């Protein structure tokens, strides 16, 4: 089945067209920068940096995170289609995929926590240490996705 996917015109276009692979890779890199960049900004704010940004306003950044994730998924699918037989058995790719799933779940939880507790954090002046640890682990997961993708 993977060989048949790899032999499609689309897969051949990505591999052989002058702009196929570079375009998909550029879009994927842009998506990575948006996704991980915004997660890091949100995370660093929750860890005490960027004190001028109110906790409540962090919720406004999540639509960018989810759009970037969609960009990642679509461009990653294009890149995967170029060599599905290679990627399906590649340990780094499988690790990256698993970390992405963990990162998505953690980011959903991350967003839920911010929605629920931002007002209390603003009143109290800081994020609880328990939540700060969760934030640190979430940042570690997304940074690991970037490293595993290289």
Fold topology:
Elements: H1 2-6, H2 9-16, H3 20-46, H4 62-82, H5 84-87, H6 91-124, H7 129-148
Structure description:
- There is one protein chain.
- 79% of the residues lie in helices and 0% in strands.
- The chain has helices spanning 2-6, 9-16, 20-46, 62-82, 84-87, 91-124, 129-148.
- With 150 residues, the protein is an all-alpha fold.
- The protein contains seven helices and no strands.
- The protein is elongated, with a radius of gyration of 18 Å.
Notable characteristics:
7 helices, mainly alpha, elongated, single chain, 150 residues, 79% helix
Q: What's the quick description here?
A:
The protein has 150 residues and is mainly α. The chain has helices at residues 2-6, 9-16, 20-46, 62-82, 84-87, 91-124, 129-148. The chain has 7 helices and no strands.
